[in-house]
Amino acid sequence: MTLDWSVVWQNRDALIKGTATTILLTFATMAIALPCGAVVAVLRLYAWKPIRGLATAYVEFFRNLPLILVVYWAFYVLPILTGLGVSPLLTGLAALALNVTAYNAETFRAGINSIRRGQVEAAMALGMSRAQALRRVVVPQALRRILPVLASTWVSLFKDTSLVSVIAVTELAYVAMQIRAQTFRVLEMLTAMAAIYWLLGYPQAKLVDWIQRRYAVTE
Amino acid sequence: MEFDFAVITDHARFLASGVGVSLLLAVLSGATSLATGFIVALLRLYGPRWLKPAVVLYIDSMRAIPVLVVLVWTFFALPIVTGLTMPPFFAALLGLTIHLAAYAAEIVRAGIESVRPGQTRAALALGLSRSQILRRIVLPQAIVRMLPAFGSLLSITIKDTAIASVIAVPELMRQSETVAGQSFQPIEVYTFAMLVYFAMLFPVTRGIDLFYRRVAHLGRS
């Protein structure tokens, strides 16, 4: 077994670009999934009954599907649905956003439900409207409980972006596996890929631990 | 736009074999991750002091690296290191276990730590040994409290088996890709696969929920 690690350095530009795409995908997905998740959660909690059912069905469906299948499905269905050629990057983004929105919606719902009803009732007894009670009493408390969960969703999302490599989005995993196929330096490239993910992911995992300790709910 | 779901019935047996492999892989890797996770957690909590940093490093690394990367590395790179080639199914079982055991270990640790230390002290005062305390006092309560987390780990396991398609394990995702490619009807095939995965996963998440509600009182103290 002769190893030649120079292949990693030689392909640094492609790897850096791939890493940038991975990070971009993570941020873009969260930027979509946070507001959409909030909307779905509110629909699920307060909307007209049939809409509530639809929102629940959406959340349960996407939480119970492997993401890699959603990625493939989006890859074939989006072009037909929209009638446009959609780039792999946008397709991957759509699949990730569909998935993470469902998770965020569940997180928001659980966070809001974790605040006791009595608080809303008390706020309304003091003359606040229901919307005011939500905005000023429930949401500020719920946010503290939601934040740690969002943080771990963030790390999962960061890792899950690797799955869009199956539809040729040029993020880190795809780029590394392409170089592996071209140079046949299998062990070197795959180890480098794992190392880059580790270097990026490890501090995030540690940060999540810190956030969870900082915002731990003490009853 | 026309859909023809005859492609599903035409390849029913082929797809059903994929479902079988998916379930087998999920059950096996679920069991091995659970067993490994228990050992890892006990090592982290009660093992020799020099071993703990290594265990923590392993657990946190698995939380940082995507399962796809672990699977691809196990299948393509590990044989170069060891000189032994592995069949895809075995590589997937190994890779999933390495990845999921870290999560299982965290669940077990949290469960054990959730039992108040006063109980251990009381048991020590009554003359029980450390292993007796773990077996008869701590674990019976801790295991019940771990159940919901194990339920979500099982559903994650089933979802992660789909990623084994990348290393050519003939499970449902891989079989669906093959049928979709041959028939040029990806929408029908992948939509069908979605329904099958949902039908596998939804009862698991719901079943664990219901089961936990029935036994939750056993974990209270």
Plain-language structure description:
The complex is a heterodimer of chains A (219) and B (221). Chain A has 219 residues and is an all-alpha fold. Chain A contains nine helices and no strands. Chain A has helices at residues 6-10, 12-46, 49-63, 67-82, 88-113, 117-125, 130-160, 172-183, 186-214. In chain A, 41% of the residues are buried. Chain B has 221 residues and is mainly α. Chain B has one domain (6-215): MetI-like (MetI-like fold), CATH 1.10.3720. At the A-B interface, helix 3, helix 4, helix 7, helix 8 and helix 9 of A face helix 3, helix 4, helix 7, helix 8 and helix 9 of B.
Report, as a whole number of angstroms, the end-to-end distance of chain A.
Answer: 58 Å
Average per-residue pLDDT of chain A, rounded, comes to 91
Shape of chain A: elongated
Could you estimate the helical fraction of the residues of chain A in percent? over 70%
CATH architecture of chain B: Orthogonal Bundle
Provide the helix percentage of chain B: over 70%
- CATH fold description of chain A: MetI-like fold
- Low-pLDDT regions of chain A: none
Number of helices of chain A: 9
Helix/strand/pairing category of chain B: mainly alpha
Q: What amount of the residues of chain B lies in strands?
A: under 5%
The CATH superfamily label of chain B reads MetI-like
**Most extensive interface, chain pair and sizes:** A-B, 41 and 41 residues
* Integer count of domains of chain B: 1
Instruction: Give the oligomeric state.
Output: heterodimer
Report the strand count of chain A.
Answer: 0
What is the percentage of strand-forming residues of chain A? under 5%
Topology:
The complex is a heterodimer of chains A (219) and B (221).
Chain A (H helix, E strand, L loop, with lengths): L5 H5 L1 H35 L2 H15 L3 H16 L5 H26 L3 H9 L4 H31 L11 H12 L2 H29 L5
Chain B lengths: L5 H5 L1 H35 L5 H13 L2 H16 L5 H26 L3 H9 L4 H32 L10 H12 L2 H30 L6
Helix pairs in contact in B: 2-3, 2-5, 2-7, 2-8, 3-5, 4-5, 5-7, 6-7, 7-9, 8-9
